[in-house]
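Predict structure. Chain length: 311.
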Amino acid sequence: MLPARIIPLLIAFSLANASENPPSAAADSTVAMPEIEIRRAIPVVKAPLNAAPALTANKVVYNRCEVPAPVVALTFDDGPNPDHTPRLLDMLKARNIKATFFMVGRCVVTWPHIVKRIADEGHEVANHSWSHPMLTALSTTGLDSQMKRTHDAIVKACGKVPAHSRPPYGAIRANQSKHLYDTYGYSTIIWDVDPLDWKNRKAQAVKDRILAQTKSGSIILCHDIHGTTVDAMPATLDELKARGYQFATVSQLIDLEKESAQETVVVAPVMAAPGAGEVKAEVKEVKAEVKPAVKEVKAEPAAAPKAVSVP
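Prediction complete.
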């Protein structure tokens, strides 16, 4: 049985994910993309099954979230794309689904009007570097150059401050993730569902892989630069909904994990004096104010990121 405090959040998700009829797909245009080298994503390293869960309050990197309900985050990388992102936005709008877009800075400055539409329609904007390099090969100065230029471009295009970043290819060092968190407040977002849509350009294969891998709390990786990925979305989204899944932005999914983690705190037993008999662990239920709906992504952060000098 779900904790009472989580129920209002799930009701809010249910209302926000009410289905509508999708529109017909718009015809593709032919606009050149900025040259960005896209190589295969590096497989996510999964924690051992017996590994202790990380404390939510201290988490900086997320592959997925532990949530008490079938809620998932749909994410799109490497855009915006002038041919495919608008079609995707139409599909999401028709189904009242909010997603998270990890955008490349050079694309942001080329098509800022698409970035503005993404934000205006309630989706979350996030940082995917300036030119899609392998971040592990960069110095701290190079990392800051990639991230700050993109951060500033996103803010200029839509007025929203990104709260998360995703490293190209999923490759980042632990000290780099900490630096991004300390400097910009970014959580590092990886994924646990990879349809390999960059490799297998078939809509059916993209759909089948997403449906096979998705579970509660999943972060789904997709790329809105590929027409076949966008072509796969209507049937994929409708089937996920039919299976009972609800959609959240990455920030909303993380908030739901934090709400769930705070429900019950188990306090370790205290050492008993000799002869005191059996000592039982004390279990305390933490009661807190029930928050109404899942929070919308805010336009302004609690604190502005620190100034960074870049070349």
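Summary: The radius of gyration is 21 Å.
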